[in-house]
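Section 3.1: Structural characterization of target chains.
Under the original work plan, the team committed to producing a structural model for every single-chain target entering the pipeline before any wet-lab resources were allocated. The record below documents one such target. The sequence was received from the expression subgroup and is listed exactly as submitted; it comprises 943 residues.
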Amino acid sequence: MAAQKDVDQWAPLLTELLQVRQPELNRRLVDAVESSTTPIAPDVLRDCRIYIERIQLRLDHMQREIDQFLPWLALFQHPPALFLAGNSADPVRIAWQVLVDALPASPLLGEIRTVCAAGRIQLAKLVALLVDPPVTILDTEARQWCDRLELGLSDARIAVRTLLDDFTDVADQAQSFVDTMEFTFLFDPQRQVFHIGYNADAGRLDGNYYDLLASEARIASIVAIAKHDVPHTHWLHLGRPLTRLEDGEPLLLSWSGTMFEYLMPSLLMHTYPETLLHQSCHGAIQRQIDYGKQQGVPWGISESGFYAFDAMMNYQYHAFGAPGLGFKRGLETDLVIAPYASVLALSFAPQATFANIEHLQTLGLMGRYGFYEAVDFTPAHLQVGAKQAVVRSYMAHHQGMILLAVAGALQGPKMVERFHAEQSIQSVELLLQEQIPRHALIQFPHETEFRPVRQAPADSSVQPWRVPVDTPMPLVHFLANGRYALLLTNAGGGYSHWGNIALTRWRADTTLDDWGCWLYVQELDESTGATSVWSIGRQPAGGRAENQEVIFHPHMVEMRKRERDISLHVEITLAPDDDVEIRRIHISNDSDRPRRLRLTTYGEVVLAPAAADLRHPAFTKLFVESEYLPDNNTLLFRRRPGTAEEAPVFLAHMLVGEGDLLRTSGATIPQMSRVQFWGRGYDHALPAVLTGAGVSVEPPAGAGLDPILSLSQELTLEPRRKVTLIAITLVAPSRAEALSLVRRYHIPTTIDRAFLRAENAATQELRKLKVQGGTLELIQQLLSLLLYPHSALRADATTLASNRQGQSGLWGFGISGDNPILLLNLGEEADGELLQSLLQAHTYWRRRGLQVDLVILNRQATNYGQPLSNYILRLIRQMESERWLNQRGGIFLLNVDQLNEADRILLQTTARVILSGVNGSLGQQLSGLLRQPETLPVFTPGA
C-alpha cells in the first residue's frame, strides 16, 4: 500500500513480489498444511491452490506487459556501475540522468511511441560518450546494457503501434456496427414505439411493444434518435405512468418492477439530478429496500436465475420485481434476490448498498469468482424445511454490470462520460433531463391482481360411481397407498406394482384387455361330470352375464355378477398401512339345490421392473423362485438377486376363508407353472387346469420357467347360503416380514379394519387435494386413455401419418417419451379451469407413483410480457407443482411459435390424449368418451 502512489516503486515492487514474496507465500502455505493437526477440508485446499495460481498468473501477466511496453523499467533497476560513477559534473553521469528523465515510469499508452523516440535520441548521446572500443569491464557492461535498452525501445514502439492499430480497428468495427444497425424495421410508425423483437421462426414482428420510459430499452431509443433512425417524437410516445410510494415523490412505473429496468441505463447514460428519471431511480431503490425489510431478507429484486431446474439440471430464469413498482401481475408470489440488482445502486445509495452486500455475504452469496447469481426465498421453489437456496451460477451479463457499477463508484462515471462524448449523443442528451411533473395522474398497480381459478368446496367424501361393462376402451381405476399400486379395469384386467417393481405381468391391450389377475368360478356338476366356467369380471371368460355391474369407489373396486343363480360380489382394495392387496369374494347360492363350485385365482409373477420384463420376459422369469406353504395355504415367491446391490423381493399369495371353511371344503390346489395351468391348445376362457388336464398332485418348488400364482379352492354351497373367501397378495423386502403379514391377514378382523382404514385414508386425501364430486371419475377416465391407447382424443390419422421423427426427437425438450404424454393446447387465461383440472389430476397420479408427462403448449405468441406463460406458472405454483417442471413424469411448458412444424407433429403424434382450452372443461371434452360406435346390422343374404 505504501507504493500505491509512488509510481517509481511499482516495477521494483513487482519484481520483489515475483521473486521473493510469491515463493515465500507458497512455502508458508505448504508448511501450514503439513503442520496442521486437524484435516483441512478439500474445498479449502482447492481454493488455496486456485488463488495461488491466479496470483501467479496475474503477476506474470503484469511483468510481461511491462517488459513489452516499458522495457526500461526493469533495466533501470540494475543500471551499469559506470553510469553512477564519478561526480555530478561527469558528462556520462549527466547523460545518464537525462536518459532517465526522458523515460518516465508510467506514460500513457498513446505517449509510449513518443517517449521511446525521445529515449533513443538520449540513449544515442549517452552511447557516444562511451569508450569505443571498450577498454574496461565497466565499459563493456555499459555498452551491453545500452544495446539491450536500444532493442527494447525499438520492440516497444512496434508493440505499441500494433496494439494501437488493433484498438483503432476495434473502434472502427464498433462504429460500423452502430452505423449499420437498423432500428426502423422494429419501429411502428403509427404508435411511434418499438416492437419487442422479431420472431425469426414465425417470420413476423412481436405483437408487443417497448412503450414505457422506465425500461432498459430507453438506451436503444436514445441511440436510435441520435442516429436519426427514428424521429424525436418517439421519446414523447414512451409511456410515463406515475405512482407514489408511501406518500413520497412520484416515480415512473415499469412493467416488471425490476432494478434492471430502472438502473441498468445509468451504467452508460447520465442520470441528471432533480429529473424524472433520477427521482424514479431513487424511488425504486427505496421501494426495494423497504420491501426487503418487510420480508426480512436483503433487497435487490430483478430478473435472474432462480432455484428451479430443467431436465438438464440448468437453473431457470425469470423476471422478478418488487410489488408496487410494476404492472406485471403476481410479483408478490416470488422472492428472489439478485446481488447485481443492489450493486447497480452503488452510485445512488452507496451506504445502503454496502450494508446489503454484507448481508448477502453472510448468506453465502460470495463465491470463488464473485457474487453468485441469486438467493431464492420462494417457498414453492425450496425443499421441505429449507428457508432459502443459493443459485450457484455466474451469469456473464450480470457480472459485467457488477464490474461496471463498482468501477463507476471507485473511478467515477468513465463509461458514462465516454458514451456522452459522442457528438450524436450530446445532441439528444436534453431528452434525459425531463422535469418531474407535479400534477400528473397517479396510478397504483394491483400487487395481488392474480385471480386463481375458483374452486367449489370439496365434498367431504366422493360418492362411488357405476362404470359400464361394455365400453369402447378399458376404463381403469388406480389404487395406491404410496408404495403398492393396483390398476383395475372394468373388465377385470390390470396389474400390481410395488414401487418400480412389477409384481404381475401386464400389457396395454385396448382391444382384448386380457392381462391381469383373474378370478375364475367353475361349477362342477356331479351328475353329468360337465363343468361351466365364468369369471367374476368380463375377462377372461368373456360372454354376457345375466346381471353384471362394476362400481368404482375412491378406495376400492366393487364387481357384482349373477350367473346361473350364483351371485358373485367382489370388493378389491389396498391396505393403507401395509403392502397388501385384498380381494374379498362373496359367493351366494340363490337356487333351491346344493351347488359345488371351484374358485381359482391366477396371475403371472414378474418381481422385476416392468421395462425389463417388457424387453426380455423370458429372461426375467428365470430368476423367480416359488414354494407352497400348506400350513398357511400360501404361495411364496422370491426373486433371486442378480447383483449384490439388488434388493430382495418376496411376494405371497393366499386364500383365506371364513372360520374352518377351507378345512371342511375340498382341497386347495396350488399351481405355479403357467404352461401347466394353460396347457396346449387352451385359452384364457377355459385353461387346462379347469378341465382337470393340468392338475398336478405335488406343486413344483424352486425356480420354474414360467412362474404364476394360482390357488384353487373347491366348496359346496347349500341352498340360500353365502360364503366369503379372501384372496390376498402381499409383498415385503424379506421372508420374515412376508410371513408376518401372512399370519396377520389370516385374521378376518384385520381385513375388515383394512377396508375401513382404506376408506378413511382416501377420504382424507381427496379432501386435501380438494377433489370435488365427479372430478375423480374424470381423472380416472382420462387415465384410461393414457394407459390404453385409443383414438378418442388422439391426433387424426393424417397427422399421425405425417410424422417423420422418432422418440429421440422429444429429448431436446427434456421429454423422455417413456411415459404417457398428455398434451394441452392453451390459448388464453380463460381456459385456466381446464389447466387446473389437469394439474389436479397430475398431482393425484404423481402421489400414487404413476408417471405421466403433462405437456402444456402455450399458443399465445411469444412476447416480452408473456402474460399467459406467467399465468400458467402462477397456477402451477398455486397447485404446488412447480418442482415438477421439466422433470421426468412432470410438467413441460412449451411455446408453439418456438417449435418447428416437425416438432409440433411429433408432439401430437406421441400424445395419447390431446386437450384444448377452446373445447371447454375436462368434463365436456370427455363427455362422448363412452359412446359406442354404431355398427351395421348382421348381413343376411336374401333368398
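Confidence is low (pLDDT under 50) at residues 447-453, 456-460.
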